[in-house]
Amino acid sequence: MADLSQIVKAYDVRGVVPDQWDEPMAELFGAAFAEVTGATAVVVGHDMRPSSPGLSGAFARGAAARGVDVTEIGLCSTDQLYFASGQLGLPGAMFTASHNPAQYNGIKMCRAGAAPVGQDTGLAEIRALVEGWLENGAPEPAAAPGTVTRRDVLEDYAAHLRSLVDLSGIRRLKVVVDAGNGMGGHTVPTVFAGLPLDLDAMYFELDGTFPNHEANPLDPKNLVDLQARVREVGADLGLAFDGDADRCFVIDGNGDPVSPSAITALVAARELAKHPGGTVIHNLITSWSVPEVVKECGGTPVRTRVGHSFIKQEMATTGAIFGGEHSAHYYFRDFWNADTGMLAAMHVLAALGGQSGPLSELVAEYDRYAGSGEINSTVADQAGRTAAVRAAYENAPGAELDDLDGLTVTTPDWWFNLRASNTEPLLRLNVEARDTETVERVRDEVLAIVRA
């Protein structure tokens, strides 16, 4: 029997197709999703991976067999599925493995209004139902099966985004977009249509085998083509989307990456201008710049754990207007608290096009410190190595330690966070300081203990 512990993660389902899961199992997930949400109707979408149409179709059949009406929106980005869930008021399922290699696929699920489904909010129950059915046989179909209908929401999604950020009056900008053969190639042309933008499209052909590079802009090697193109054509900026186009990375006119923390601070300032006094969520590995800018703009910063389910929960609890993560996930109250890289990109375009200077100058005020970026170490004993790091710093002068998410050590001049991966034998280190030399010193000190 399939081992669901290998594919049901903290926030989603993800694994190799067909080795770890397949269409018959997707059908069971559809039936379980229908049962756990108690919905009478759901919406389902999928990315461009070769296995996605078959898996999403099987999921739809499973839900319909339980008496649930299914709206299939077909090819879409993950934030387009969230839009449909919010706009239609329906639970949703998105078939994607985001930036993972081609042989992977997965399901991101949400309740009506794009509220996340994670281990504590329904995913554990869904897994238990599927495991039971795999062992004892599929459930009996409902007396009256649901319907399966198709609906295209791309134009409505684009119109909603354009209603939130007005780009009609900006100066004309030359923008290079690298879609990485992912869903940005599907959404960008419609969202940007008719705007004062000269679009230079890279890798817009939908191809789930990712023939040009991985659709993972978090890895610097996947930005090299975009950086070169921005410099070659003299663009004002570059945008890189991941496979399911819910994350967006920004390259300035010099071809240099802009820190996602700087983008978080920039967008936070714009959202606070629209919603004075609002709350902004940031995870604990974003730069010191983020809470500083939020306070300077009259807002309240709230620090939270890494991960979209934590951010979305905190946004719902606090009524936050915006949330940002250093992994380039950006969350908006005006978008059902869901993450949308496209809306963040539009804020950057609006800010850049609303003044005459280059992006590098614009973001300089939001990028105030030196950072290490995330450094991964393969470690068998994650808890033991973390305890060793704690012992080394717990009596350091001026150091404060906390355990919100892994171990964070903060001093007046630097901080670091050391977190264990949920899915791999890795410890992830992030360091920030007032200068590069201090970052390098603290980084090397911590890594020497972690890798001892």
UniProtKB/TrEMBL annotation:
Q: Which Gene3D superfamilies match?
A: Alpha-D-Glucose-1,6-Bisphosphate, subunit A, domain 3, Alpha-D-phosphohexomutase, C-terminal domain
What GO biological process terms does the UniProt entry carry, in alphabetical order?
Answer: carbohydrate metabolic process
GO terms assigned for molecular function: intramolecular phosphotransferase activity; metal ion binding
The regions listed as transmembrane in this protein's record are: none
Tagged with keyword Metal-binding? yes
The cofactor required is:
Mg(2+)
Q: Which residues form a coiled coil?
A: none
Instruction: One Pfam family, please name it.
Output: PGM_PMM_I
Question: What sequence ranges are listed for the domain Alpha-D-phosphohexomutase C-terminal?
Answer: 374-447
Name of the protein in question: Phosphomannomutase/phosphoglucomutase
Give the species. Streptomyces klenkii
